[in-house]
Every structure is written in structure tokens, then in C-alpha cells.
Amino acid sequence: MRYIFPIGLIFSIIFYNIVLMAQLLKILLIEDDSDDIELLEEAFRENNITYSLEIIREGDKVLHYLETVKTLPHVIVLDFNLPKIHGRKILQTIKSNVSLKDVPLIVLTTSAAKEDELFSISMGAKHFITKPVLMQDFSKIVKLIVKSAKFY
Questions:
Q1: Rounded distance, CA 36 to CA 49, Å?
Q2: Model pLDDT for residues 108-133, shown as the tens digit of each residue
Q3: What does the radius of gyration of the chain's CA atoms come to, in whole angstroms?
Q4: In three state form, how does the secondary structure of 13-32 look?
Q5: Is the domain 24-148 a CATH 3.40.50.300 member?
Q6: The whole model's pTM is what?
Q7: What does the domain layout of the chain look like in residue ranges?
């Protein structure tokens, strides 16, 4: 069986895919550890990902940023161990906010506690990841971040 597609439809699909691939990935990283920030940035560069990274290092600054930013991030990466407000509280606040709850959120933390993982997933986190030691594992995380992003 042979299918015939209108040429306009084919060009529309190709154009949409090109625009989507070229779109800048906007990430909100809520992390206070400079080494972890550098490792993630290096992994993004090594994987040739075009991205914009907004970094918030203190828990008490997150909600204000999200309420005042013009465009929401495509994905949020959240550490639990933050100064001023713990990441669990931030996760709970984001996922209970009607305008923020659909933004994909990945918890990336040093915790390997099962209760933290269960809490995160039950609150709506897309993934719970214990921070890796090896650079190659950061590359896997970067690919997961890209896959989890929601483009508006």
C-alpha cells in the first residue's frame, strides 16, 4: 500500500522537528554545591546540549524566582540538602502550586534513603536520583534531564 502525503504537511513536520531540536533547554538547578554544578555543566557540554541554566543556591529564593520569572523552566533539578529551606519543602511547595505543578522536576541529591525517594515520587517528582561519583554517570543524568523536559 502506498501513502501520499500533502507536501505542505511534510514540510510542516520537518520544520516543527527542526525548531524543537534547536530550542534552548531552560533548566532551573536548585543546588548549593559548586562541584556538582560544575560536573553537571561539563556533562551538558560533553553531550552537546544547548541549554540555559539558572542556578539558585538557597532554598528560600526558589518560590520567589518561580513566581516572578517570565518563562517557566522546561525542567527543575532539585537538591534536597539546601541552606535555609530543605528541598523536601521546596518540592512540596512547587507540586502543590497550580501554575508550577506540571513543570517536570528531578530530585538529584546525596540521599539514598528510601523514604526520600518515596516522598519525592509521591509528591510528583519525575525521578529521584542519588548523586553519582563518576563523570559518565553525570552524562546519563543529563540525558535523563533532557528526556524529562517539557517544552511549552
A1: 17
A2: 999 999 999 999 999 999 999 999 98
A3: 18
A4: HHHHHHHHHHCCEEEEEECC
A5: no
A6: 0.83
A7: 24-148
